[in-house]
């Protein structure tokens, strides 16, 4: 024999031969029957142990197929021999004579003989034992796996021959070549890793046989595959999605976190959410659809691509790619068979009924919506509304815009259930809808409601009812609001179109759920198209207004229901109209009230905040809810409101107070008796504090110069230092008053011929005269503001200057009685802002002198606006949390705005002030400034701070963050790969 195994026919003694004799091996064999010895050779059995390793049934079955020997008796004899051999072997192992070191005793005990014990009586050979946990132990994982491996090979695969059986060496050809050692035995390996490894080898082997797929990676293959509906699968997109799950900002949300502009700082309403790309890209990314999935959702419909020559080929290719079926024509389409459709889509029968809104999921309309044009089919007359509802609600998108009857299920003559009223376009819509439902997890009815709301909101630009980028934008915005506020799909649908007046699955229609449940009035609210008078006191109008107010949790006052209803009446169309009880206007009311409650605001507060963000144009977009290509639309406004509410809560601000401080809601200052007395006293004090010509006589100034020319000292001071009322003129903020007054005096006196030292004495006397007047006049205003607002005196001058005035102008208004009350109101408003911000005199003075240090778009004057207020608030937050004195922060701005700055030093200094590293600051600045210039304004520093916060939350570096925000559906595979690997690495 060539195998090296012992030849049983040449051995003088063989247990197998004895088994053969015992097994009656002496009879004659048939043509196809082997002797016992030959059968053992064929079965690769060389000892009794090879026999007993098999089960008795397996051995009997194998032997009986090739030999007539008594297999059962041979097996029992083999087991007896094996038992005896094992017992003899164990007996010979005992009493090795080698003493155990563990039994030796020391000290006094070593003087006494050890009595009989198991180790003494049975001196086992410990060299044949192994350590606990060793891989060669009979209870180790290796022994267990070896036993399993033998069991699979010898008993499972060797039992009954089946042609369809896939054996282990076909499933896992790598097993027999795996190395068993300490590392491979005890190193944990995730099951998913093993599965991926095995599948990858099998897939690669298959791919090599397909010419068009040869050379492609597995990731590329699963990303390109579109059937089954679990595909396409973008591995790196899934890495990012899982890595940014939980409380971390998801893909797209990151763009809003590190947006270059915020709603307060943006020049254009849609800049919020823009980093490298527009906010629309960020909203699409928030939908949770990968790049290949996005392409499937919004790819052009088949009907728009095909022509007479290519229609048949494109249709066949479509069905093969999307459903993996062979298509010939509509009549013989295999997908019309329900069982085939279920198999190809992975749905069950209930899922198909939900998809088509039939059977147990058939829709029904609210009985309380009776006006034409306010049913599920907005273009159908009232008598056709029920048919329209059954055809469209819950399945509006999949049925499409055609007049063809809605899809349904019928049984043919053979009792086979089939889909009827289908078409190529409808199968295209079905596969998109099924995929969307799988990806979003939204039930079919709710998803169709949301999708159809978007389609109808687009209006005339989408008469073909196709899925567009707006669909993905809406899904992304919905997912974000659902994650943060628990918003339901039908509620979000009402944000962009009408609230549903229909329902299925035993639920109340949304209209009745909001306005007629629970029933608090004797009759329900009915939409019949009648006019609702907002001021009439008739019982019916009062009752209807009460029903609306109660349902929307509004007060039937000017600030509540009436104000919202007026907005609807004035802004919902192209021209003002009457407020009617129809679904369009009622949905607009609901939209405004629900948006407010979602953000935790009253309706009046939400309306006021929308005004602050975008004035009348924003309010009109919210009232109408229409989506269009002119940004921003209602989706952008929702994201901006989310940011604004978050900031207001974080900074503990009140919307009403904010509008008052910004001058949006001007409230007249109540002129109390106390204020009147204060202003009268201040006016009298101002008259005493003005500088007069005759006061110069006490200065003992020379009347003539050295050339004997008469000197008019008042003329020299007038206009340049003292105005016509005797009030000292405004002094520049960047200098101390004494310095600027001295400089101006020196310039004015330089043309007068007076020799030293008299010239210096005259200049000093005049400086003291003017400076004393300046100080006494300013003390008057400082005292007033301290009394009225508690503003510290050192902040008085910068606050007055911020308000566009100064002490001289204010006192002049008092002396002339020219709008003093209005100026007091303005000063009080600016004082409140300054105190709420907690700005120091130096900081406020610095930003008044250099407004561009707050924002590059600010001119020479610092405005009081949402933008400046936000940036000053962020400066205060930075000052309070950076751990450095305020002088260090202001010095940084000075250094960063110096034309001769050293960018490396600026980066190092900013890194220490923000708690980041220089390399990260430089990496982020590359996008921020487009050059090596370091952030030089609070606007830019705030962006870096938000980048730093996002980096801390996600674990990504600045470059990795910017790489993630740069992703789009058209980004390269390598870009997605690098971003996915970075996110996964950040989670380890």
Automatic annotation (TrEMBL):
It comes from the Bacteria. Keywords: Coiled coil, Virulence. Residues 672-699 form a coiled coil. It holds the Pfam family VRP1. This is Toxin. The lineage of its organism: Bacteria, Pseudomonadati, Pseudomonadota, Gammaproteobacteria, Pseudomonadales.
